[in-house]
Amino acid sequence: xxxxxxxxxxxxxxxxxxxxxxxxxxxxxxxxxxxxxxxxxxxxxxxxxxxxxxxxxxxxxxxxxxxxxxxxxxxxxxxxxxxxxxxxxxxxxxxxxxxxxxxxxxxxxxxxxxxxxxxxxxxxxxxxxxxxxxxxxxxxxxxxxxxxxxxxxxxxxxxxxxxxxxxxxxxxxxxxxxxxxxxxxxx
Length: 187
Prior knowledge:
Layout: H1 12-32, H2 39-46, H3 50-54, H4 60-77, H5 81-86, H6 88-94, H7 101-114, H8 118-139, H9 145-164, H10 172-183
């Protein structure tokens, strides 16, 4: 799939700089929120100039999208979607996994920013189109996979919104029991 954004740098030094900028930007976005952060803030935290950031990202919006894309790829590499499809309750626990909390907060910021920032809107659409295809491929044998995808996305966004408001996730056992009763799911 061709990205709406520029290809990542090809030299090892440029790739290392880009990775460092993504890591620092993620930390700054999570700590202060996307809307409250400027590229100058990220440059200062990284010890570089704004121009150095522009050498890798065309805008703050693209930087946010690439942070999310990178974090999703890292998380997805640890997630076995086929096993989750076979054991739904195990998959439901992933919605409240504390390891993904920061990513969910970034996604909430991106959802708000996408309403007014075309770079964020285009990047988020690109990410979620690819993710939807991946999830639908796994769900293809089930009844109404598009509806299941919608439920998955709604649960994920809902948990992220709760966390953005400072509400802690429930105990995993209580979550599992409630989800099992709500959806009539059992392992």
